[in-house]
Amino acid sequence: MTLLFQYGSNCAESQINSKNRLRGDAKFVGIAETLEDYQLAFDVASTGRGCAAADIVPSPGKKVWGVLYDVPNFLFERETAADRGRKSLDAIEGKKYARESIAVRSANGEILHASTYKVISPQTGLRTNLEYVRHIIEGLREHRVPDEYIVDVKAAACANNSGISTEVNAL
Questions:
Q1: What span, in angstroms and rounded, lies between the C-alpha atoms of 9 and 137?
Q2: In CA terms, which of 8, 10, 48, 72 is 20 to 30 Å from 26?
Q3: Exposed, middle or buried, 59 (CB in 10 Å: 0-12/13-18/19+)?
Q4: What pLDDT digit, counting tens, does each position of 19-37 carry?
């Protein structure tokens, strides 16, 4: 098993463990924040969702909270997952993201190392949508991420797409 840090729509177990993703094989471990300074950004086009998807980008003094899952090792790489008739995390995240190691601090203060996915070539001018942001916020709330961080996520989404501000702030 490998620890996986998720900060976008896969914070919601209904997303990461859906039939077209990990089918229940991602086991919730806890919540964590990045050890290094990052902030949430919407800087990659998701063709499947029709909007800008999440990324974490360096930002002095900021932290990104997310969800830690234990995932079977074979589900990370395309080849090993395909050998078992499954879709890998590498395939789910697609060619626009690269898997990297990240240091995170768990809610109890323990420093852990996990895999995560970051955007390879961030783009400007992309807009996220309400449905996508809803998945992120629902996942963060589902796992009791601090409310102050959820306020930050809402602010980032509204800054990215002011047309959804009223609905996002009502979430």
A1: 8
A2: 48
A3: middle
A4: 999 999 999 999 999 999 9
